[in-house]
Amino acid sequence: MTDPNTRRYMVVKNFIKQGIEDGSWAEHKRVPSENELVETCGVSRMTARRALDELTEEGILYRAQGRGTFVAPKKLHSPMLEIRNIADEVKQRGNEYSNELILLQKEHCPIHLLHYFDLEEGEDIFHSIMVHKENNKPIQIEQRYVNPKAAPDYLKQNFNEMTPNVYLSEVAPLTQAEHQIEAKEADPFMRVTLKLQEHEPVLSIDRTTWSKDLLVSYCQLFHPASRFKLTGRFTTEHQLTEL
Amino acid sequence: MTDPNTRRYMVVKNFIKQGIEDGSWAEHKRVPSENELVETCGVSRMTARRALDELTEEGILYRAQGRGTFVAPKKLHSPMLEIRNIADEVKQRGNEYSNELILLQKEHCPIHLLHYFDLEEGEDIFHSIMVHKENNKPIQIEQRYVNPKAAPDYLKQNFNEMTPNVYLSEVAPLTQAEHQIEAKEADPFMRVTLKLQEHEPVLSIDRTTWSKDLLVSYCQLFHPASRFKLTGRFTTEHQLTEL
DNA sequence: TAGTTCAACTTGTATATACAACTTAGCATA
DNA sequence: TATGCTAAGTTGTATATACAAGTTGAACTA
Fold this sequence. Notes:
The structure is a homodimer. By secondary structure, chain A is of the alpha+beta class.
């Protein structure tokens, strides 16, 4: 039972999530009761209950004693991690994850980033560009500058095994992150890569991450803004400059 | 068993929380195992487990299979949290700010929000919808549910003087906020109000705010995603679950 | 008709049990 | 010494069972 998806309560969770996704149960509609799931899924009530409990905790369902369990209209609490791992997310949807490495090299640090990475002009930095795919369809472009001091072996990694995000969080555990979200026009590369229509905007997420006081990575993520539903969760504890 | 604190798993939770508070178990120290709690608290293992599970979910403990359950390091709490208001932002750009109140009323709390606001069915909540304008051009739709316990005089306010955001932060100082950013299709109301083109997406920001442990407000902000350049900046503190 | 009771269904709490999966320390062996 | 194995302890998953507590609608009664 190494694959999480073979676990019985995961089967039930996916069964419910699937039903919500394909419209079997609309918002505020009752999903099968615990006892009904015992019948249809062939699990014990406690297992069915665990599935419903977790989905409730994730904000996907809500429950009312004596009445039933219902589909929540909009997630108040996102089930996602604070920094999402796109590979896991794709797999969690039951789809196939793959990626394509466009660029991976050492280069002189761009001038406008020298200050952030605490580098002198002419010093090197790692630069990668990759495309993340779901069922072979491009869903995200990732451009990333990585601090050699924080991840000296970045260039040697095989990013089919492990996304840059996961690798970096292993070699330089996150202590702080800053995000900037922006909707903007796509450039020609994005338009071709993400198969965008004319004038279709992209949702851009700039993410800067630190490990202790060391700036580890500056990363830009681009998604099609209209065709995909993109959610992120941010718990702010310092400062938020808004709009 | 009407008092939640008489429930067995709550007894165990309080026992653990108490021990952490009075210093019996320091950060990263092991707390009693499930079987030890069976002995000392006189509950079944599943009940002890539920207590530890919930405390883990709350970020108070972390668990490692085969090793034990440990006290998680404390989250950093910064009392200062700034959410700048849109009126100031517009004025800072040298433009004229105005708004239009679409709806301001008391209504029964929607069922799916009862749990979050800690209300019973039939209890009332405040609901407002307004449009923020820059040079008389709509730039943001704000829909907001407000907890009457946190801001009992919300309905009496004149929101030309002070935006809901500013008013709320005065009567119930923010201690925590959570955001969810999403690009999605506009509904007809948004399309008309924000003068959107066909199929033009909106950038939606869901913001939930707390004052201490009290959920103050659940708010949705909608912006045209393509015509305006919208940037938000978020500083996140991450907690490590595995050490 | 209006109000009450009750049966059937729901979720909520609690226990007892079994086995799987993982970690660690100590022991046995090469 | 170094290596590998095992036993004991831990969390993780799953089942079966029982009763408590809240909801609903239908049958019953005044």
